[in-house]
Amino acid sequence: MNALISALRRRFPAERVITDELRRLAWGTDASFYRLVPRVVVVVENEADVAHVLAVARQEDIHLTFRAAGTSLSGQAITDGILVLIGEGFAGFELAADALSVSLGPGIIGSEVNRRLAPFGRKIGPDPASIATCKIGGIAANNASGMCCGTAQNSYQTLVGLRVMLADGSVLDTEDAVSLTAFQQSHAELLGELERLGNETRADDLLAARIRQKFKIKNTTGYSLNALADYANPIDILAHLMIGSEGTLGFISRITYRTVAEDPCKASALVFFPDIETACQAVIRLKPQPVSAVELLDRAALRSVEDKAGLPPMIRSLGESVAALLIEVRDQESVGLQARIDAALSAINGIATVEPALFSTDPETGEMYWKVRKGTFPSVGAMRRTGTTVIIEDVAFPIESLAAATLDLQALLRHHGYHEAIIFGHALEGNLHFVFTQDFGDPAEVARYAGFMDEVCKLVVDKYDGSLKAEHGTGRNMAPFVEMEWGKQATDLMRRIKKLFDPENRLNPGVILNDDPAAHLKHLKPMPPAEDIVDRCIECGFCEPLCPSHQLTLSPRQRIVSWRELSRRSTAGEAAGELGADYPYFGLDTCAGCGLCSTACPVGINTGDLTRRLRGRGQSGIAHKFGRWTGEHFGAVASVSRAGLQLGHLASAVVGDKPLIKISRGAWKTAMPRPGRALRARRGEGDPVVYFPACGGRIFGPSTAGEAQLGDVIQLLLTRAGYAPRLPEGYDKLCCGQMLASKGLAEEADAGAARLEAALSEASENGRYPIIMDASACSVRMQTHLSGRLPLFDFHEFAHDALLPRLRLVRQAGPIALHVNCSVRKSGSDTKLQNLVRACVEQVIEPAGVTCCGFAGDRGFVVPELYQHALRKIHDELPKACDCGVSSNRTCEIGLTAETGRTYRSVAYLLEECSRAGAVGAC
User: Does the keyword Magnesium apply (predicted)?
Assistant: First the structure.
């Protein structure tokens, strides 16, 4: 082990060679129901890194697995050897001049690719449900498809070329003539063997026909043998074998896709049928029509999501046999769209429906339908009994057999006691997913699962000649059944391919091909109870792209994984060990608690709530007493804080910012704000409005000397718009409790919120007048606390709704940067903030690579590495001409200013400047 780590560290810095028990455990989980803890985790950023890892693996005789986002559902992204994480250096994006093709690194997220392609009316073909999380490496390596791409637009069909590193460290770039020539010389034997395999396959009429027949429907079981039937050139064969190879044949370092049209006009219909057989009859009629997608949901699937916002209430009263189809049509123009709607309706005319089919062109309705459809799998997971895991299987049938096969599946699930199971899927392709819950802690339950899977495989293969894995990849889950589906001849062909590319069985062994008939029953992931607020988590990883600490320490998924293990040890009377010693920093100190994870989680789990709960448990009695004192004497706390700021500025004047930053371990910031000062009340004439300046703006004044304080700017704006602002009595001694809540001092925080509520109620005459707060995190906290008892608005909300109509703006050219902080995103008021800024400035830059800024109240002073990591991508997205920015939370603005070197201020400053007579500049 020491030799392995030493060999890796000869190239990699310490932070990219992960050896601690906590993070190895955390990375040992993907979205499947398997777990393997790697011996070491290493982050690679370029091909030279990959080559070094391959060389070390050969030297130390150890196997390895490449991992992109870890949304794999069949256990193909885990290992007990070297886990190779694909770093951000592999997040390449290069668009062809005509936008008809795009070259991508394996580390870029699928939805990010589509976001960049959207202005050109293009997208990539694959569209898996996890596209907002999964990365191109995983999409290509699993030949992932999805809702609309079918078998015509997956990675195999839209591949233009790729660059791949083989197990021996050699590189082939199929789009580079020099690389091709060199590879043909250095690997003539490999290419010759591929050519022979292709010739043999195509010459065997029965085998070739069998392969072509198997790939008429979705199929990711085993290797892409269609490469041998479809292509004669060995380079083409090699490239297409890499698609769906799950990292067992080589590492794809770049792939070029043919892009496909993204039709701007869309219409969706959720149609209910009296039973699943009738719904499947409708699918058969829709298959030849110009429809983009048809998703099937059985009654149990509908029940799992029937309480989702926006769905018709009648779903709750549907009969037990009812099934639904989510149908979508698309076109470049509205006229063509209507023609496709008419064609779809005509196709199902005469088929019994519970209610008449009705298409909606409203984008929000369509988005809601798809969000609900994508949430069916996690929703079942959320409803499972604590301690069980959720399993999703993925099969495909010839479409003409879909109805009978679905009924057989339902009967099989009932027979084995999986009464909670749901069935849904991409009906146009005969692709069904069935989801059920399973207890792997009980040997009898494992035996039940084993028996069920044996019967499922017989049903799919023997009765319907379908695919055991349609789009989720073979993985560990179906590897023992590959020969059952394909037969010995074809499976032996796959074994020859694996041996040809990876003779030492170094790359992801046990995945795709596995001679152990019980491999799918080993390394099962434990799911012990931990905390009620996170026990519903199925570890899908959808939360990770939004988390500011992901890849710095832990992601929300990894925090839950780690805490589950610590809880298991505690229950079993085992020592927490190194895991327990490391969790406070990795799990708690560096969690921003922003809750953005809940916006991506299909069941709304906020891992920040877990962090706050655990922080609270760790607080001593003295901490609670100090928390109470802080809330009751907040005026004194604010005064001490301002005095500390003043001392900091005095020290900075003597030694300079850089030494002070080092001495304070990052707590001091470049362009640290001046201490705040008392507000001048502006009563004015007009409509009364209550304004409560949050403590962040009261303690931290402006960053620029001589600039007005935030509270003064907001009062000036209110009076300019014809309002008469009033401050609550004793406002300078009040706090909403946000700072205490973030430390887990919930009771003390709620007491502060109650004191503030009383003052706001008095000032607003029991809610007669609107109330404004100027820090989004505090506003959202108080809105939640008040629960509608008083009309409280975040400043940008009130400005958008009430000030814009009353102010005369002089719109500036810009550019100006906008940071939409996590509280605004969670509250759903981001559109108002964006529209407010765009009303003031023509060119607004909103960096897509930034979610939560990571400053998180006082976290930015205590663990500055958190916000620095969270903002690491912002530098490349802000043009030099953009020298200032706006947001709506004072501490966020401090962190953004310190990290970017550009002054970030409240959006109130921008609005005030643009509403002055003869305004001349947005900054």
Answer: no
Give yes or no: residues 23 and 103 share one domain.
Answer: yes
One DSSP character per residue, 549-605 reads: TTTTS--HHHHHHHHHHHHHHHHHT---HHHHHHHIIIIIIT-----HHHHHSTT--
Q: Residue 434 is inside which H or E element, if any?
A: strand 431-438
Domain assignment present for residue 714? The answer is yes
Give 758-774 pLDDT, tens digit per residue.
999 999 999 999 999 99
Residue carrying the six token digits 């490239």: 239
Q: Which residue has the tokens 């709704």?
A: 801
Question: Which residues are within 8 A (CB) of 402 and not within 5 positions of it... i.e. 6 or more apart?
Answer: 280, 283, 284, 427, 430, 432
Residues 244 and 283 in one domain: no
What DSSP string runs through 758-823? HHHHHHTTTTTS-EEES-HHHHHHHHHHHTTSS-EEEHHHHIIIIIGGG-----B---EEE---HH
Residues 297 and 228 in one domain: no
pLDDT tier for residue 304 given thresholds of 50, 70 and 90: confident
Let me know whether 723 and 845 are in one domain.
no
What is the CATH classification number for the domain harbouring 853?
Answer: 3.40.50
Looking at residue 162, which CATH number applies to its domain?
3.30.465.10
CA distance 759 to 780: 17
Q: What mean pLDDT do residues 339-356 have? A: 96
Hey, which bits of 612-731 come out as E strands?
A: 687-692, 723-726
Say whether both 88 and 25 belong to one domain.
yes
Ranges of H-type helices in 459-548: 482-486, 488-501
pLDDT (tens digit, 9 = 90+) per residue, 632-654?
999 999 999 999 999 999 999 99
Task: Tell me the three state secondary structure of residue 226.
Answer: helix
Look at phi and psi of residue 677 and say left if phi exceeds 0, alpha if psi is from -120 to 50, else beta: beta
The residue range of the domain holding 859 is: 806-914
In a domain, 723, yes or no: yes
DSSP conformational letter for 709? P
Is 321 part of a structural domain of the chain? yes
Kindly state the tokens that stand for 110. 């699928």
Confirm if 437 and 538 have CB atoms less than 8 A apart.
Answer: no
Span 584-635, pLDDT tens digits: 999 999 999 999 999 999 788 999 999 999 999 999 999 999 999 999 999 9
Number of domains in the chain: 4
CA separation for the pair 732, 698 (Å, rounded): 8
* pLDDT value for 868: 97
Strand pairing class (816-818; 844-845): parallel
Do 332 and 468 lie in one domain? The reply is yes
Residue 463 shares a structural domain with residue 484: no
pTM of the model: 0.94
Predicted local confidence at residue 312, as pLDDT: 80
456 falls within a domain: yes
The string of pLDDT tens digits covering residues 523-547 is 999 999 999 999 989 899 999 999 9
User: For residues 146 and 218, what is the distance between their CA atoms, to the nearest angstrom?
Assistant: 10
- For residues 44 and 605, the answer to whether their CB atoms sit within 8 Å is no
Which pLDDT value is given to residue 486?
A: 98
Please report where in the chains the tokens 């058969």 appear, as a residue. Answer: 284
Last residue of a domain, one of 765, 784, 804: 804
Of 804, 833, 867, the residue at which a domain comes to its end is 804
Q: What's the rounded Cα separation, in Å, for the pair 55 and 51?
A: 6
How far apart are the C-alpha atoms of 560 and 603, rounded to whole Å? 15
Averaged pLDDT of the chain: 94
DSSP-assigned beta bridge partners for residue 67: 85
CATH of the domain at 277: 3.40.462.40
Q: At 288, is the secondary structure helix, strand, or coil?
A: coil
Based on the fold, state whether residues 762 and 860 are members of the same structural domain: no
Is residue 51 a contact partner of residue 165, using CB atoms and an 8 Å limit?
A: yes
What is the enclosing helix (H) or strand (E) of 283? helix 276-286
